[in-house]
């Protein structure tokens, strides 16, 4: 009887750990897609090679809830200078990072979607999903409170001008993905990814 009880407890423990690990893995997964090319961004820093064309970014997050002050979002800074990433350190407070400070979230376009990325070290793209009327990315699926979202990007805004990618005069962009999953206001392990995007 005792052995059966111990066995059940072990199975229960493994199940809980597996579920926790699955949620942890999901909310740290980011996929960048451009036509037939799909990049699974698994490392803290990665380099991808892109055509000068539109692309999309898929990621997982919880639902933004303004009524309950649950501000779940994917904050994305797009930088032209790699030196601007040197201030990013583990445990750093998010409001001490110039392009993630409160009030630096850039306003979305006319459709309330971020179809144009802002390239600046003074602000960031604040990608959220609250409902179908209030969203900055498209909902693909939802399971156990975790949303799979798709953010389609067709152009860039650089030096306050909208520019299609084929006319953008930058060869490399530095994407900083920050997902403050526990809303504690600091960079924790696996909440930050840097993607170096090189254009052909």
Question: What's the short version?
Answer:
This protein is mainly beta and 200 residues long. The chain has one helix at residues 2-27; strands at residues 30-34, 37-41, 45-50, 55-61, 74-79, 116-119, 125-127, 129-131, 134-135, 138-143, 146-153, 155-158, 161-164, 172-178, 192-199.
Describe the 3D structure:
- With 200 residues, this protein is mostly beta strands.
- It has one domain.
- Helix content is 13%, strand content 39%.
- It has one helix at 2-27; strands at 30-34, 37-41, 45-50, 55-61, 74-79, 116-119, 125-127, 129-131, 134-135, 138-143, 146-153, 155-158, 161-164, 172-178, 192-199.
- The strands form four sheets. The chain has a five-stranded antiparallel β-sheet with strand order 2-1-4-11-10. A five-stranded mixed β-sheet has the order 3-15-14-5-7, with no helix packed on it. A three-stranded mixed β-sheet has the order 6-12-13, with no helix packed on it.
- A hairpin with a 2-residue loop joins strand 1 and strand 2.
- The longest helix has 26 residues, at 2-27.
- It is globular and about 40 Å long.
- The protein starts with a helix and ends with a strand.
- The model is unreliable at 2-23 (pLDDT under 50).
């Amino acid at each position: 009887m005792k052995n059966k009880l111990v066995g059940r407890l072990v199975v229960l423990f493994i199940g809980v750990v597996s579920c926790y690990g699955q949620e942890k893995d999901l909310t740290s997964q980011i996929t960048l897609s451009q036509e037939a090319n799909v990049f699974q961004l698994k490392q803290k820093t990665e380099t991808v090679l892109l055509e000068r064309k539109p692309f999309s970014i898929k990621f997982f997050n919880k639902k933004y809830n303004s009524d309950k002050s649950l501000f779940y979002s994917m904050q994305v800074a797009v930088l032209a200078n790699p030196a601007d990433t040197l201030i990013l350190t583990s445990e750093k407070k998010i409001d001490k990072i110039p392009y993630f400070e409160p009030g630096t979230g850039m306003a979305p376009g006319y459709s309330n979607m971020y179809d144009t990325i802002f390239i600046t070290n003074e602000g960031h793209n604040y990608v959220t999903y609250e409902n179908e009327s209030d969203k900055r990315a498209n909902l693909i699926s939802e399971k156990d409170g975790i949303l799979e979202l798709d953010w389609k990007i067709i152009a860039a805004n650089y030096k306050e001008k909208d520019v299609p990618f084929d006319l953008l005069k930058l060869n490399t962009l530095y994407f900083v993905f920050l997902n403050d999953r526990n809303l504690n206001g600091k960079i924790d392990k696996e909440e930050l990814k840097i993607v170096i995007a090189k254009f052909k």
